[in-house]
Amino acid sequence: xxxxxxxxxxxxxxxxxxxxxxxxxxxxxxxxxxxxxxxxxxxxxxxxxxxxxxxxxxxxxxxxxxxxxxxxxxxxxxxxxxxxxxxxxxxxxxxxxxxxxxxxxxxxxxxxxxxxxxxxxxxxxxxxxxxxxxxxxxxxxxxxxxxxxxxxxxxxxxxxxxxxxxxxxxxxxxxxxxxxxxxxxxxxxxxxxxxxxxxxxxxxxxxxxxxxxxxxxxxxxxxxxxxxxxxxxxxxxxxxxxxxxxxxxxxxxxxxxxxxxxxxxxxxxxxxxxxxxxxxxxxxxxxxxxxxxxxxxxxxxxxxxxxxxxxxxxxxxxxxxxxxxxxxxxxxxxxxxxxxxxxxxxxxxxxxxxxxxxxxxxxxxxxxxxxxxxxxxxxx
Length: 380
Ligand SMILES: NC(=O)c1ccc[n+]([C@@H]2O[C@H](COP(=O)([O-])OP(=O)(O)OC[C@H]3O[C@@H](n4cnc5c(N)ncnc54)[C@H](O)[C@@H]3O)[C@@H](O)[C@H]2O)c1
Fold this sequence. Notes:
Residues 212-320 form the Myo-inositol-1-phosphate synthase GAPDH-like domain. The chain folds into 2 domains: 18-209 and 321-374, Rossmann fold; 213-319, Dihydrodipicolinate Reductase, domain 2, CATH 3.30.360.10. Helix content is 31%, strand content 19%. The chain contains 11 helices and 11 strands. Helix 3 (139-146) crosses helix 4 and helix 10 packs across helix 11. The longest helix has 21 residues, at 319-339.
């Protein structure tokens, strides 16, 4: 795909930089970093730019986002410049911007904790994580040294300890926090209070992708409910060939992912469905699909006259750019919160961009709330 160029528009403030740190230089990080360079010339909100929800947020352009620090545990990534690490195996997402200049950020060894699932050992090295023998750094110290303002958590599903470690390091280093995965931080009162005490904002939990399985399932469920159709049964089956799907083959790691995905859809139904009648989750790992995720949604209901209605849908998406399309906005929304000295969980951004926010709203309402937040009409 050819690189697009975008007109500079008049009157846009040259925003200061937003220094970000990344925990987990996997596929989602790869898409995010590629996106920062792919969209580096975007300025001004007067042009419709394919792939973006907001060209500029507040005064912040995409080119204001600067990676300053990164952590991983994989031997093929540790010690490499972030611009190379994001293309190292087992990352397998689509490369849409290959010429990334050196960032000067060397990926540092984080503590492994529960970040790497034991069952991954059964798979070939080029498909799974391979733990480096490097000694882990003190993440909080490294964050402080780098001057990072925001830490983005991209730990694999099921990494409860690792996510808590990175959240604590963010608190200690004075960094705001974006939690892209389903360990509950921004949606948990005790963590919200910790961020409030440190006067830091956070957003979470578990990214609701740009146009992914969750938002499509939510909007269709909401449509059925609004139009008076009683939903009786529904499923959402997902599979893909990246390390995220390989990791999720371990059912023991899936508890919070199931909660996050199921509650996200359930919150849009007129009435809750029993366990037997709603099935949502990652379903299998198909290596050749790489970062392409396939999702099947089925909704069964009863409309006027108790007459049945069925909907079947197949969605095929490259998984990681789908999350990066949201994180590119979240970074700038969180920076606005930092500028405005707002602390604790950001309700509007979490509701619009996360599957398991502190408070659920319809996507239409949450979007409205985000726009109000950007204009300064809403505190959080
Ligand atoms: N792709 C999406 O649209 C999407 C949507 C919602 C949530 N998520 C979640 O975001 C997270 C990241 O997804 P991804 O596709 O980038 O995963 P990935 O498997 O590609 O990347 C995870 C990275 O974390 C590293 N890692 C493991 N343990 C670590 C530790 N202790 N410290 C530092 N690094 C460690 C791995 O080496 C790997 O590089 C996953 O939990 C995923 O479920 C993704």
